[in-house]
Specification:
alpha+beta; 4-stranded antiparallel sheet; 60% helix; two-stranded parallel sheet; Outer membrane efflux proteins (OEP)
């Protein structure tokens, strides 16, 4: 924008010489289009994207949010495991062969047996005591609640990042719109100079000097276009879009003095000049901080840690393992002098086992679980305090941005425009010198740039306030 001041001298000189002609044929003012909504001559098939569409795409495509959603699937699968009974164990064994050993290490009577000659079947069941299954299920449910809150927190962070990038892109777009509008004004001025040159009212050297003075302005267009391309690329990352997607690149400009705009995958649109009000008191927002997603995550993690402590304390109840079995063998069972030969032997077994010497292990596990619970509770309190600090910072930034924006929308910008027009007309009438007009133009340009910065700062402050409080609807959809 600072190069625009350098061009003022030939422009004002042109206006002075053409003032009578212009006064005879007043031009109709085009319909005003808000900043951030003006069409840009972008090459290729550029996709137009608004803030609302970008947020919908983020929910569907953002990879961080998708990864967080998979965490819920994991937690639900773990609950299925935790709520199941300990699996019983079935065992089947068989003796496929045998041999006898003599006193001199000789082997006699070796033989092999079929599978149906002897078989042993056993069943082992773990009987949990102390309500461990219910406590495991409760712990798993707490982890599901944590995973769900983490999805909301991931969405909150990604939405805020998207809004920051989108507002930055709109600000860069507004600067590009100004640069392109100024270039259009220069085009019209140059066309008027050419007509004067053809009529002999202007020396050729003045036209050449004017054309040479356009080079810095085209550099400003390049800078603004590059800033817009970089901001748009960051928006594309949040939406899992390829910022380097294949689009038709701009060909070389026929005019060597003109800079072509880059090919972009998306073109953001939004009412950058909007000045919304939150309509909510500071106290209401302060009370809502405790429901912020990351605060809820920390609180649920502390609750899950408490459930884990209860589960660990239930280990004081020692689980019992019950073993049952049945064995059948058809090997020779004849007893001496038996009147009825036996053909098979069946045996039933029942066992009970209890782990011993587990008190030290149990006390250690309980101590670790209690320490983790206390740690999670401290982290939850810290998360709430940090959220309160974030809210205080965001509210201060909001008030400062609102006051600064009111300074410009309350008359500073209109006064700068009025001062410039007054100085320009006084110069045309011979009552002011060129330095006064240039100084007024410099002030107007600086005020316009500052007003754009104030708008971006205010919109960002609203997005930050919504991010800090977790209250939806504070940031405008533009």
């Amino acid at each position: 924008m600072r190069h625009f001041v350098v061009l003022a001298a030939p422009i004002l000189a042109m206006v002075c010489s053409a003032a009578p002609a212009l006064s005879q044929t007043p031009a109709r003012a085009p319909a005003a289009v808000g900043a951030g909504m003006q069409p840009l001559p972008l090459p290729g098939q550029t996709r137009v994207l608004t803030m609302g569409e970008a947020e919908r795409l983020l929910i569907e495509r953002n990879l961080t949010v998708i990864a967080a959603q998979r965490g819920i699937d994991i937690a639900r699968a773990q609950r299925l495991v935790a709520s199941s009974l300990p699996p019983a164990q079935l065992s089947v064994s068989n003796m496929p062969g045998e041999f006898n050993e003599t006193q001199r290490n000789g082997i006699r009577g070796a033989r092999f047996h079929g599978p149906d000659n002897n078989v042993n079947v056993g069943l082992q069941v773990l009987v949990e005591l102390g309500g461990k299954r219910e406590l495991r299920t409760r712990y798993a449910n707490e982890n599901i609640a944590v995973a769900e809150a983490q999805v909301l927190d991931a969405l909150r962070n990604q939405i805020f990042a998207l809004r920051q990038n989108f507002i930055a892109a709109l600000a860069a777009r507004a600067n590009l719109e100004v640069a392109l509008a100024n270039r259009g004004s220069l085009d019209r001025t140059e066309a008027l100079l050419r007509r004067q040159l053809q009529d002999g009212a202007l020396p050729e050297g003045d036209l050449l000097r004017f054309q040479a003075s356009r080079v810095p302005f085209e550099a400003d267009v390049t800078t603004a276009a590059q800033a817009y391309a970089a901001a748009v690329a960051q928006v594309a990352v949040s939406l899992a879009l390829d910022a380097a997607a294949s689009v038709r690149a701009p060909g070389p400009s026929r005019d060597p003095m003109r800079v072509a705009l880059p090919a972009l995958a998306i073109d953001v649109r939004g009412r950058f000049d909007t000045v919304p009000d939150i309509g909510v008191s500071r106290g209401t927002l302060g009370d809502a901080v405790q429901s912020r997603a990351d605060v809820v995550v920390a609180s649920r993690q502390a609750s899950a840690a408490g459930a884990n402590t209860s589960l660990t304390e239930a280990q004081r109840w020692r689980d019992v393992t019950v073993n049952g079995g049945w064995g059948r063998t058809r090997l020779s069972q004849d007893l001496p002098n038996s009147e009825q030969p036996l053909i098979a032997s069946n045996q039933f077994t029942l066992g009970l086992s209890v782990p011993l010497f587990t008190s030290r292990i149990t006390r250690g596990n309980i101590g670790a679980a209690q320490g983790q619970q206390a740690q999670s509770e401290a982290q939850a309190q810290n998360a709430l305090l940090q959220a309160r600090a974030d809210f205080a910072t965001a509210w201060s930034a909001y008030e400062q941005a609102r006051a600064l924006l009111r300074l410009y929308t309350g008359g500073a910008l209109s006064r700068a425009e009025l001062a410039y027009r007054s100085s320009e007309q006084a110069y045309l009438a011979g009552g002011r010198n060129l330095l006064d007009v240039l100084d007024a133009l410099r002030t107007l340009n600086a005020t316009r740039v500052a007003a754009n910065n104030a708008r971006a700062q205010y919109l960002t402050a609203l997005a930050q306030l919504e991010f800090a409080t977790g209250v939806g609807g504070l940031s405008p959809r533009l």
